[in-house]
Amino acid sequence: MSIFHDSERHKNDVGEVFASLDKDKDGALNASDLSSFFSTYSSSVSRTDIENTLLEVGDGNQITKDQFFGLFYKHDAQHDPEEEFKVAFAKFDVDGDKNLSAQDLKTSLDAMGQNLTMDEIQEMIREADVDGTGMLNYEEFVKMVQTM
Protein backbone atom coordinates (compact mmCIF):
# COMPACT_ATOMS: atom_id res chain seq x y z
CA MET A 1 0.00 0.00 0.00
CA SER A 2 1.29 3.40 -0.76
CA ILE A 3 0.51 4.71 2.72
CA PHE A 4 4.06 3.62 3.53
CA HIS A 5 6.60 6.08 2.21
CA ASP A 6 9.96 4.68 3.24
CA SER A 7 10.70 1.66 1.04
CA GLU A 8 12.72 -0.26 3.64
CA ARG A 9 10.06 0.36 6.28
CA HIS A 10 7.46 -0.60 3.69
CA LYS A 11 9.20 -3.95 3.09
CA ASN A 12 9.39 -4.60 6.82
CA ASP A 13 5.73 -3.71 7.27
CA VAL A 14 4.68 -5.90 4.35
CA GLY A 15 6.75 -8.73 5.84
CA GLU A 16 5.01 -8.28 9.19
CA VAL A 17 1.62 -8.31 7.49
CA PHE A 18 2.57 -11.52 5.68
CA ALA A 19 3.69 -13.15 8.92
CA SER A 20 0.50 -12.14 10.73
CA LEU A 21 -1.67 -13.49 7.89
CA ASP A 22 0.25 -16.76 7.60
CA LYS A 23 -1.68 -18.32 10.48
CA ASP A 24 -0.33 -21.85 9.97
CA LYS A 25 3.22 -20.53 9.44
CA ASP A 26 3.71 -22.59 6.28
CA GLY A 27 5.27 -19.71 4.35
CA ALA A 28 2.29 -19.25 2.03
CA LEU A 29 -1.06 -17.45 1.95
CA ASN A 30 -4.25 -18.96 0.55
CA ALA A 31 -7.47 -17.28 -0.62
CA SER A 32 -8.87 -17.15 2.90
CA ASP A 33 -5.74 -15.43 4.24
CA LEU A 34 -5.81 -12.88 1.42
CA SER A 35 -9.54 -12.25 1.81
CA SER A 36 -8.94 -11.37 5.45
CA PHE A 37 -6.18 -8.94 4.51
CA PHE A 38 -8.03 -7.21 1.67
CA SER A 39 -11.30 -6.95 3.59
CA THR A 40 -9.38 -4.95 6.18
CA TYR A 41 -7.41 -2.72 3.81
CA SER A 42 -9.30 -2.47 0.54
CA SER A 43 -13.02 -2.80 -0.01
CA SER A 44 -12.49 -2.85 -3.78
CA VAL A 45 -10.88 -6.33 -3.96
CA SER A 46 -13.39 -9.13 -4.51
CA ARG A 47 -13.04 -12.86 -3.86
CA THR A 48 -12.83 -13.33 -7.65
CA ASP A 49 -9.96 -10.81 -7.81
CA ILE A 50 -8.15 -12.76 -5.10
CA GLU A 51 -8.65 -16.08 -6.86
CA ASN A 52 -7.44 -14.55 -10.14
CA THR A 53 -4.40 -13.15 -8.34
CA LEU A 54 -3.61 -16.59 -6.92
CA LEU A 55 -3.71 -17.95 -10.46
CA GLU A 56 -1.65 -15.09 -11.88
CA VAL A 57 0.94 -14.65 -9.13
CA GLY A 58 0.92 -17.93 -7.22
CA ASP A 59 0.29 -21.56 -8.03
CA GLY A 60 -3.50 -21.13 -8.09
CA ASN A 61 -3.99 -22.12 -4.47
CA GLN A 62 -1.50 -19.99 -2.58
CA ILE A 63 1.27 -17.41 -2.83
CA THR A 64 4.67 -17.36 -1.14
CA LYS A 65 6.16 -14.45 0.76
CA ASP A 66 8.17 -13.33 -2.29
CA GLN A 67 5.06 -13.51 -4.47
CA PHE A 68 3.14 -11.52 -1.83
CA PHE A 69 5.78 -8.76 -1.98
CA GLY A 70 5.42 -8.69 -5.76
CA LEU A 71 1.65 -8.50 -5.46
CA PHE A 72 1.92 -5.66 -3.00
CA TYR A 73 4.23 -3.60 -5.15
CA LYS A 74 2.19 -4.33 -8.29
CA HIS A 75 -0.88 -2.83 -6.65
CA ASP A 76 1.06 0.18 -5.29
CA ALA A 77 0.88 2.07 -8.56
CA GLN A 78 -2.83 1.37 -8.96
CA HIS A 79 -4.04 2.92 -5.72
CA ASP A 80 -4.62 6.51 -4.73
CA PRO A 81 -2.99 7.06 -1.31
CA GLU A 82 -5.72 9.48 -0.22
CA GLU A 83 -8.38 6.90 -1.03
CA GLU A 84 -6.43 4.25 0.89
CA PHE A 85 -6.33 6.51 3.95
CA LYS A 86 -10.07 7.15 3.69
CA VAL A 87 -10.87 3.44 3.39
CA ALA A 88 -8.56 2.56 6.27
CA PHE A 89 -9.99 5.31 8.47
CA ALA A 90 -13.55 4.16 7.74
CA LYS A 91 -12.64 0.57 8.62
CA PHE A 92 -11.12 1.67 11.94
CA ASP A 93 -14.08 3.96 12.70
CA VAL A 94 -16.19 1.12 14.09
CA ASP A 95 -18.97 3.33 15.45
CA GLY A 96 -19.01 5.64 12.42
CA ASP A 97 -18.66 8.89 14.36
CA LYS A 98 -15.75 10.21 12.21
CA ASN A 99 -13.35 9.93 15.17
CA LEU A 100 -11.23 6.99 16.26
CA SER A 101 -11.63 6.18 19.92
CA ALA A 102 -9.38 3.80 21.83
CA GLN A 103 -12.16 1.20 21.58
CA ASP A 104 -12.41 1.67 17.78
CA LEU A 105 -8.68 1.07 17.46
CA LYS A 106 -8.71 -1.88 19.88
CA THR A 107 -11.55 -3.60 18.02
CA SER A 108 -9.93 -3.07 14.61
CA LEU A 109 -6.41 -3.99 15.66
CA ASP A 110 -7.64 -7.13 17.45
CA ALA A 111 -9.45 -8.17 14.26
CA MET A 112 -6.16 -7.74 12.38
CA GLY A 113 -4.32 -9.93 14.89
CA GLN A 114 -2.52 -6.97 16.48
CA ASN A 115 -3.38 -7.53 20.13
CA LEU A 116 -2.24 -4.31 21.77
CA THR A 117 -3.28 -3.44 25.30
CA MET A 118 -5.68 -0.59 25.90
CA ASP A 119 -2.80 1.31 27.56
CA GLU A 120 -0.68 0.93 24.41
CA ILE A 121 -3.56 2.13 22.24
CA GLN A 122 -4.25 5.11 24.49
CA GLU A 123 -0.56 6.04 24.29
CA MET A 124 -0.74 5.92 20.47
CA ILE A 125 -3.73 8.25 20.62
CA ARG A 126 -2.03 10.64 23.06
CA GLU A 127 0.99 10.90 20.75
CA ALA A 128 -1.13 11.70 17.67
CA ASP A 129 -4.02 13.64 19.23
CA VAL A 130 -3.17 17.22 18.24
CA ASP A 131 -6.52 18.77 19.19
CA GLY A 132 -6.68 17.10 22.63
CA THR A 133 -10.04 15.35 22.20
CA GLY A 134 -8.75 11.95 23.31
CA MET A 135 -9.67 10.57 19.89
CA LEU A 136 -8.14 10.74 16.41
CA ASN A 137 -9.80 12.63 13.62
CA TYR A 138 -8.99 11.81 10.00
CA GLU A 139 -6.04 14.22 9.71
CA GLU A 140 -4.48 12.97 12.96
CA PHE A 141 -4.93 9.37 11.79
CA VAL A 142 -3.18 10.08 8.47
CA LYS A 143 -0.27 11.80 10.21
CA MET A 144 0.04 8.91 12.69
CA VAL A 145 0.12 6.30 9.91
CA GLN A 146 2.68 8.29 7.92
CA THR A 147 5.03 8.44 10.91
CA MET A 148 4.76 4.74 11.78
TrEMBL record:
<dbReference type="Pfam" id="PF13499">
    <property type="entry name" value="EF-hand_7"/>
</dbReference>
<dbReference type="InterPro" id="IPR050145">
    <property type="entry name" value="Centrin_CML-like"/>
</dbReference>
<dbReference type="GO" id="GO:0005509">
    <property type="term" value="F:calcium ion binding"/>
</dbReference>
<protein>
    <submittedName>
        <fullName>Calmodulin</fullName>
    </submittedName>
</protein>
<keyword id="KW-0677">Repeat</keyword>
<feature type="domain" description="EF-hand">
    <location>
        <begin position="80"/>
        <end position="115"/>
    </location>
</feature>
<feature type="domain" description="EF-hand">
    <location>
        <begin position="116"/>
        <end position="148"/>
    </location>
</feature>
<dbReference type="Pfam" id="PF13202">
    <property type="entry name" value="EF-hand_5"/>
</dbReference>
<dbReference type="InterPro" id="IPR002048">
    <property type="entry name" value="EF_hand_dom"/>
</dbReference>
<dbReference type="InterPro" id="IPR011992">
    <property type="entry name" value="EF-hand-dom_pair"/>
</dbReference>
<keyword id="KW-0106">Calcium</keyword>
<dbReference type="InterPro" id="IPR018247">
    <property type="entry name" value="EF_Hand_1_Ca_BS"/>
</dbReference>
<feature type="domain" description="EF-hand">
    <location>
        <begin position="9"/>
        <end position="44"/>
    </location>
</feature>
